[in-house]
Amino acid sequence: MSVRFENVSFRYPGGTGGVFDIDLEIATGELLAVIGPSGSGKSTLLKLLSGFAVPDTGRILVDGRDVTRLPPHERALGVVFQSYALFPHMSLWRNVAYPLKVRKIAKKERRARALDALARVGLADFAERAPPSLSGGQQQRVALARALVFSPRALLLDEPLSALDASLRNDLRDEIVRVQRGAGIATLHVTHDQEEALSMGDRVAVMHAGRLVQVAKPRELYDRPLNRTVAAFVGHANLWPGVVEAAGRVGTPLGLLACDTTGFANGAQVTVLARPEAVQPLAELPNASRPNVFYGLVNADRFLGAQRRCDLEVGSGIVRIETTIRTAIHAVSIPPEAIRLLPPDSTASQNPAHTGKPS
Amino acid sequence: MAHTNAPTGRSIPLAGRGIRLAFVLPALILLGLFFVLPLISVAREAAAENGAAFGRVLRDPVFWQGVKGSLVLGTLAPAFSVVVGFLVALHLSRLSEGVKALALFAISLPLTFSGLVIAYGFILVFGRSGFVTLLLAKLGADPAVVGGFIFSPVGLGLAYSYYLIPRVVLVMLPVLSNFDRSQIAAARSLGAGNITAHLDVLVPQVMPALITAFCLTSAVAIGAYGTALALVGTQVNILPLVLYSKISDAGSDFPAAAAISLLLMGLCCLVVGVAELFRPRRVV
């Protein structure tokens, strides 16, 4: 039960927004998380798959069947909405049994299946309760049970955790993944929370201005972003403009950085990426000569509990540091292997290694 | 002084009470002069001759025909208005705030006209020499049939709907605007067609407001007088016209008229009371 977008484009009538040239495949049992800034087209992607918008061009296939022009109720997709969208006038079991009711399944069977689905999300004892009497997390679990009770061809999650408290979100992430794994169906998870996407997704797709910029496994996306847009959106990042001055040497606002420049010619304009947690804070300048060591002044120091986030002014640039040490910081060392060079900002990269095919 | 020093709470400072009373007083005077005093006067009139007027009225078959006519008109016209008004409000609820405000302004306009003005408007448009009638005559429709429609009980119901529909829209629009439309999207994604989704999910949740709208418009229709008098005269038997016949040139039985007016008011209060029972207690 896979999902495939084939060259799908959709433009909102009278506007410039939409999605363009989407080629994406979600394999059976895979959870693909889609992230991107507001207006990037991630929710439009979900609307197109669920049938609430029809592509201008291209095809959408679910389980090999072309559903591009099918109305929502004929697609057999389970959708979990941000606002839960439970029916407040029905008890929990009737909510969960609703997709079975519209499929004309006998009342006795649909009640049994609804209770079973509620048990799988730990809410069997609440079957007769009304949705408004439940907490947000409980309501979202009911919505998940309802979306899966009729064995849909695919599961769509529309920012399902964004209305919940941070502590509850973490628990529910694990629960959604557990239930999704149990159901073994292709899942499209739209979220603006990159941590949620990285922790839940088998792969993560980054969208920008209606286009897929990169689709990759979470670690690859974080460690090897395709360009500045992805690097800036996924996780925290030091991004400096740079020029390759020689093999293994890049000029930056901090000064000359030693790093791998393979693939970039001398004189090439680049964006230099170094993740804040890879930057090593130093109490003082070391005596021995080490590459990429810079003296600087801390101009912002934020205590975050387990971590500390500092901005160090170095030359005409700023180095962001994320560290657990609590002592004074006067210098930083940026290991060459922690530096990655990216092409100048461009979102239209079509590197075949980063298209939407599952690996 | 203790009152004025109270930091918070429900107690209202004496000066505040005075100001509030000053604001309320004009309304109380108006209510007294134009509702309570006339009501007492009518009640006294009806109770004259030891309430014999009530007996006369209740034994009069014309009165019961009037009750029947009022109930039929007070059921069918509101039912039609509720269906149309609900659909209009449903459409309006999906529009942007600016367009919604403009449309509401236009829709509410009939409420500012008196029943007589509306009746004459209908006669000018749909009467025997009305604009629409003459237009349809050019297409071959018989003006006698088309023009006669507005003077029939069904035509009267249609004219009533002209000012009942806006009332339904005004009751339903806030409820529909606050309705979480993702529930409809959820129902559709779960396998329900568009109409089924609305019937299963939306209608049960807005039913109290629909019943309220029906009862309110029913009370208005039962009590309406000017439109009916101008359009059908006394050809259609409804309570307001029975009442009219008791005090018009043809009759002068004031105690009976007072008794009928009290019974008519009781009937309207009953219908409004039912509406109050079903009034939505919270925003859907």
Label this structure with key terms.
heterodimer; A: 359 residues; alpha+beta; Rossmann fold; OB fold (Dihydrolipoamide Acetyltransferase, E2P); 2 domains; 6-stranded mixed beta sheet; 5-stranded antiparallel beta sheet; 8 helices; 21 strands; 32% strand; elongated; B: 284 residues; mainly alpha; MetI-like fold; 13 helices; globular; disordered N terminus
* Structural classification of chain B: mainly alpha
The CATH architecture of chain B is Orthogonal Bundle
Average the pLDDT over all residues of chain B and give the rounded result: 85
CA(first)-CA(last) distance of chain A: 16 Å
Shape of chain B: globular
> Which percent range describes the beta-strand content of chain A?
25-35%
CATH superfamily of the largest domain in chain A: P-loop containing nucleotide triphosphate hydrolases
- Oligomeric category: heterodimer
CATH fold descriptor of chain B: MetI-like fold
Unreliable spans of chain B:
1-9
- Over the alpha carbons, how many angstroms does the gyration radius of chain B reach? 24 Å
CATH topology of the largest domain in chain A: Rossmann fold
Low-confidence segments of chain A? 347-353
Per DSSP, the total helix count of chain A is 8
Into how many domains do the coordinates of chain A divide? 2
Enumerate how many helices of chain B there are, as a single number. 13
Strand content of chain B: under 5%
Strand order of the largest sheet of chain A: 6-7-8-3-9-10
- The gyration radius over C-alpha positions of chain A equals 24 Å
Report on the architecture of this protein.
The complex is a heterodimer of chains A (359) and B (284). By secondary structure, chain A is an alpha+beta fold. Chain A has 2 domains: 3-228 and 350-354, Rossmann fold (3-Layer(aba) Sandwich), CATH 3.40.50.300; 237-342, OB fold (Dihydrolipoamide Acetyltransferase, E2P). Chain A has 8 helices and 21 strands. Chain A has a 6-stranded mixed β-sheet, sandwiched between helices. In chain A, helix 2 crosses helix 3 and helix 2 (92-101) packs parallel to helix 4. The radius of gyration of chain A is 24 Å and the shape is elongated. Mean pLDDT of chain A is 89; it is low at 347-353. Chain B has 284 residues and is mainly alpha-helical. Chain B has a single domain, classed as MetI-like (MetI-like fold). Chain B contains 13 helices and no strands. Chain B has helices at residues 2-5, 14-59, 61-93, 97-108, 115-126, 131-138, 143-149, 153-178, 182-189, 194-223, 226-232, 239-247, 254-278. In chain B, helix 3 (61-93) packs parallel to helix 8 (153-178), helix 5 (115-126) packs parallel to helix 11 and helix 10 packs antiparallel against helix 13 (254-278). The longest helix of chain B is centred in the N-terminal third of the chain and has 46 residues, at 14-59. Chain B is globular and about 70 Å long. Mean pLDDT of chain B is 85; it is low at 1-9. The chains are: A alpha+beta (359), B mainly alpha (284). Chain A binds chain B through residues 50-52, 71-73, 75-79, 81-83, 85-89, 98-99, 102-103, 143, 146-147, 150, 156, and chain B through 180, 182-183, 185-194, 196-197, 200-201, 204-205, 284. Chain B: It comes from Azorhizobium oxalatiphilum. Chain B: It is found in: Cell membrane. Chain B: Pfam families: BPD_transp_1. Chain B: One of its GO terms (biological process) is transmembrane transport. Chain B: It is a multi-pass membrane protein.
